[in-house]
Each structure stands twice: as structure tokens, then as C-alpha cells.
Write a structure and sequence with these properties.
Low-confidence stretches: none
Structural class: alpha+beta
Order of helices and strands: HEEEEH
Strand order of the largest sheet: 1-2
Strand content: 15-25%
Radius of gyration: 25 Å
Oligomer: single chain
Shape: elongated
Number of strands: 4
CATH topology: Helix Hairpins
Distance between the termini: 24 Å
Number of helices: 2
CATH class: Mainly Alpha
CATH architecture: Orthogonal Bundle
Mean pLDDT: 92
Length: 136
């Protein structure tokens, strides 16, 4: 019974870690896109652009000089800053996200190993029970 309880517990932890890894991966992918956009912002100054809206609506616009941007800093807050500071902030967040991802993946591997150990022990117990029931 203890092994089955542990198996259930570790399975839940594994699923939770898997979800966290997916979330951090999506966040870092989004940060990568934002960093790329900001790094190319000078090359698109004074260009015609299309702004994607909700539900498939697109708005043609003219982009002026890119010297200030709004950056989300968490807690529902945006700050106005220059491109260089925004890039620094986004790259720092990206690095922190990579650190967390590395730790989450390591923890997931450990939980996976523990789950396999538990499954092996459960299989061994079931085999012993079968042997005892058949009288071998």
C-alpha cells in the first residue's frame, strides 16, 4: 500500500513538473521573440507595419522612431524604458528562466528515476505474491 501511495504521489509530482517545464518553455520562447524584435527595432524605424489584433483583425500602421517601449515587469505593471534597458531586462529574465528550467528538468529526471524504482519494487512484490499463491 505504501508503494502504491508513493507511486501516486510521485506521478502527481511528475505531472506538475512537466506542466511547469512547459510553462517556462513557453515564457522563454516569448522572451526570445521579444528580444529578437527589439534587436531589430532600429532596422524597421519609419516602416509600414501591420499590427495584429484579436480575432484575426489587422491594422496597417506607420512605425516612427523606436526610442521608447513599454515593458511588462510583472504584477500587472508596465514601465516605459529605452530599447537597451528593455533588452537588458528581457535577457536577464531569459537567463533566470533557463536556470529554473535546468533545475526543473533535473528534478523531473530524479522523480522519473524514483518512479521507475517504485514500479520495479511493486512488480517484484506482485511476482512474490504470485509465487506464494501458486505454491512455487
Amino acid at each position: 500500500m505504501q508503494l502504491r501511495y508513493l507511486q501516486n504521489l510521485y506521478s502527481q509530482q511528475y505531472e506538475s513538473l512537466d506542466g511547469s517545464i512547459a510553462n517556462y518553455t513557453m515564457t522563454n520562447t516569448s522572451l526570445d521573440r521579444n528580444i529578437e524584435i527589439l534587436e531589430k527595432s532600429k532596422s524597421v524605424e519609419n516602416s509600414n507595419i501591420i499590427i495584429a489584433g484579436e480575432g484575426g483583425a489587422y491594422i496597417p500602421a506607420k512605425l516612427g522612431k523606436v526610442d521608447k517601449i513599454m515593458t511588462y515587469v510583472g504584477g500587472g505593471y508596465l514601465i516605459e524604458t529605452n530599447v537597451e534597458k528593455a533588452l537588458e531586462f528581457l535577457k536577464a529574465n531569459r537567463a533566470k528562466g533557463e536556470e529554473v528550467l535546468t533545475k526543473l528538468v533535473a528534478e523531473k529526471r530524479k522523480v522519473e528515476k524514483d518512479l521507475l524504482d517504485i514500479q520495479y519494487k511493486l512488480n517484484a512484490l506482485q511476482y512474490e505474491e504470485q509465487q506464494q499463491q501458486t505454491g512455487s
